[in-house]
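Morning run. Coffee first, then this:
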Amino acid sequence: MPGRGSWRMRHGPWQMGGRGMRPPWWPESEAWPPPPEAWNQMRRRFMRRVALFVAVMLASVAACLLIAGVVEPLLRRGHTAAEQDI
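And here it is:
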C-alpha cells in the first residue's frame, strides 16, 4: 500500500522496538510475549465457541424443519376439511 508506511508501523508502535518490547496496554504482571500455551488455550476456546455456534445453528434449522413437517400436514388436513364443509 503506497504512502501508508511500513507493515510494522501500521500495526502498532510497540512492534517498532522488536519482539521484546511490551505494548503500552499490556499488564505489567503478565509476561510478554505470552507463552505458547496461552495461545493454544485461546485457540481451543475459540474453536469450541465456533463449534457450539455451528451446532446451535444446525439444531435450530433441524427444529424449524421438524416443526414445519409436523404443522404443515395438520394445516393441510384442516384446510381440506374446511373446503368440504363449503
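The mean pLDDT is 78. Good start to the day.
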